[in-house]
Amino acid sequence: MIGRHLLSAQDLTSADAVRILDTAGELATVTDRSVKKLPTLRGRTVVTLFFEDSTRTRISFELAAKRLSADVINFAAKGSSLSKGESLKDTALTLEAMGADAVIIRHGASGAPYRLANAGWIQGSVINAGDGTHEHPTQALLDAFTLRNHLRAGSGDLAGARVAIVGDILHSRVARSNVALLRTLGAQVTVVAPPTLLPYGVHTWPCDVSYDIDDVLPHVDAVMMLRVQAERMAGSYFPNELEYSRRYGLDSRRMALMPDEAIVLHPGPMNRGVEISAEVADSPRAVVVEQVTNGVHVRMAVLYLLLGGRPEELMVEGADR
Ligand code: NCD
Fold it and tell me: Does this model's pTM top 0.85?
């Protein structure tokens, strides 16, 4: 069962994940209407607490909460007392005093959302919007939703789907959450990277590992390209960007190795010309913009389920008006 918090994709059973994806599918119909709002979370307060930069994830959560009629407070590290050195604890106590029902946190330190959820500082739900190099569960859910729409006509799990995740696996919370969730949903995952961009212990992950993208591409239903996370790199993990893109970047020549129906995902922000060429990023096989749209639906579903929206409301309010 989906509990009070969403901290890790590993906490989700297949039934939980399918329930979130199905709910997201229902909620997607709301965005097709002229009035894109449900009253479900009226009177509830949702806080986005972002210690790291973000475009898509923060806006997506804000929009999701607003479409469910919650009051939303955006709390960014820059421009708040956080930049004066206020601790996570004092920030949490402040949010609690203001009656936050859910706190959506992005933090540079792996584990920060766990501290927030388990230290007893706040009563509400905690949603992990990316913690260090650890996890980004709602990204994995929106990726699964996107894959399901393309590969499984939008229902059920992803049993047997073949997905390659390519690039900076070492620093990627998106990769960690995706490997866990895709596996839970029955997909076969291969991570592809130079040995220097694979974490220690990757061979114990529930996926295959390859160093050769050209070997893997002919056998996938989808490929997920990851950004090279320069801001998390202390040393030199590869000679230079040109060399990286030559060996691991997805350009048109490489995309032609993939089966005709196979699709290309990227969580954004993209480094065009590094891990993905502009031509591939703009091709009809790239579903990057669709991933962003789906992010809103999936985050609505997560907020809805964690904050206890009732299924009857969804049915009644889901009717056209
Ligand atoms: C990712 C992140 O921040 O983890 N982006 C996102 O949430 N859409 C991936 C990245 O920064 O490369």
Answer: yes
